[in-house]
Structure formats: structure tokens, C-alpha cells
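Encoded backbone
================
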Amino acid sequence: MSRNPFDDHSDDDPFANSFGAPSTTTAQHNANSTTAHRQDDDGRDTIPLHSVRRSEDMGGLLSGGGIGGGKSALYKPIDADGDSHGDHTERSAYGGGGYDFDDDLSPKGGGRTINSRETDLRRREEELNARERELRMREANVQSMANGARPPLNFPPLYPIMYHAIDAEVPAGDRRTVRTIFYLWLALEAMLVLNCVSCLIVMVSNASDVSNAGASFGSSFVYLFTITAGSFFLWYRPIYNAYMKDSSMFFYLFFIFNGFHILFDAYMAVGVPGAGSAGIIIMLQCLSSGKKAGAAFCGISFSLWVLHFAACLVMYLRVRRHYKRRGHTFAEAKQQAYMGFAQSGAGQAAASTAANAYIRSNTGNFV
């Protein structure tokens, strides 16, 4: 037979004398004096919810003090007063803690987390789409080359002699560097034109203190063609191929000839008379002669050469760091140079000539 929890068991209550507080059964008898018993479907006695609450108020075992003096680990039903769903708060059944909800029924702070995750997912999706487009473009180029059809020539625009497409041939992570160097090369062409115009103005102004103005203009006009072609094929196209093919040989070509170009920028900024540059020396000579127009153009040209020198030096150092991170070496560059020469038409012709000479010198017999 089941034990009635409301009978008097004070004699065998192990907690009655230990804690000096009213026993659990005493609290239950007090609760029983005000409320009637309830029975479940099996006929066993059950404790009404409000009886448990009254037992807590009287300091029984079911109270918040409990055995350990802290909050009870037992279930504490929530009465009508404790239900506060109106302000979106809810107490936990284990210790009274709860969750706070915003108007969108999501935990506080969760909305920001969800938004950040959605933003991150969108960003990743855009990156995947960009990579997919890049792979499709490269695949199309590879297939066209495999079929013997190379991409159409598109550079320079007025008279195309080569194919130039940074977005199609350079990896996505290196495009910014290559594009910046390309813009520096375009700025160099504009500066060469401005330098030639400045030398022409100095020559026309007939400044008495300016020496060899005609020679400066002639040299600056020659620079329009020689420096344009030399800079493109000696340091811009090599760095384009270096990033496209990840080749040590082309990186070394860039380091050599772009290093000379940085010195050329400094040389043009100085403005040696008769050397084809409208730099600071020519500007000071124009100022001493009272030629303000020539001095103004020379001052602009000098400033641009200094800025171009600094920008080229920064990009040179950036490419150098990339080269070291990739683990390229000079021995690798020499090996690539030998292989490239052997595979070229000139290398094959030289090898054929040497073989024929060897055959003739040995009466047609190999040793």
C-alpha cells in the first residue's frame, strides 16, 4: 500500500532535528489543513500545486532554501501571478532563470547574429560566383588554345599586336597588383608627353639661363617612343607573365629592368640640361630668367616624376615580398631561361647549326 505523504512521520524524518527547521511533513500537514487532497486516476494521493508553493513559504524541503541553502533543483510550478508572457519573459523550471525574447520571437542578440551570418553567406556566395566565372573564362581560353584558336589580339587598341586581359589571365588574388603596375605604366606615357611639352615650352621661351634647350626637347621627343616600348616589353610585360605563369625568370626580368626604370625616374626628376628632362634644375633656370610658364610646367613635371618614383618603388617592394613568399630562386630562374631558349626557334636553330658543325668536323661519325 502506498505511503500517505500527509501522515505524521516526524519521528522518522531524518531532517527534522538536523536543520532546526520545520519538517517536510509538518509543512505538508499545514498545507493539508487548508486544501483538500487530490487523487490521481490510480487512487494515489497527489500534492496540489498551490500546496507545494505553501510548503516553500514555510521553509520545508521543497522550499527555495533546500538542503544546500541555495535554490531548489526541484520543479517549481508557475502560478498565475508568475506567468508573464505578456512582456515576452518566461522563468525556467530549474532555478527561475529564463530567456528574453525580442519582438521577432528570437533571443536577444540572436537577430544580429543571424544577420551577420546571412551577410557572410551572401559574401561567400558572391566569391563562389566570381570564381566560377573565372574558371569558365579560363576553361574557354584553354579549349580555344587546344583547338588551335588563340584569343583575338586586343592591345594596343589602335594597332593590336598581342592579347592583354588581366581579368582573364591573372589569378584573382594578384590582379590588383598587376593592374596597379599597368596604371603606373600608363601614367609613365602621360608623363613622357608632359615632359616633351615642357621641354618645348622652355625652348620656345628662349630663356637666357637655360642651356641646351633644343637638345632637351629632341631627347624628350625620342623618349616618347623608346621609353614607351622599352618599359612595356622590359618590365611591364614580364611582370604580367610572371603573375600569369608564376615564373621565376619573368620575376627576375622585372626586378632588373624595373630597377633601372626607378633610377630613370630619379634622373628625370633632377632635370639635367640637354638630357631630355624638364626637372628641378631646368625649373630653377627658368625662374632665374623670369620665364614663369616654363618654370610652372617644369615644376609639374618634377612633382610627377617624384610621385612616380615613390609609387614604382612601393610596387617593386611589394612584388619582391610576393616573390619571396612563393619560394622562387635564382637557380629556378636560370633553369627556366635555359628551357625557354631551347624550346624557342632561335634555340632550335642554334642547336641544329651546332650539330651540323659537329658532324662535319667528325666526318659524319658520332663519338
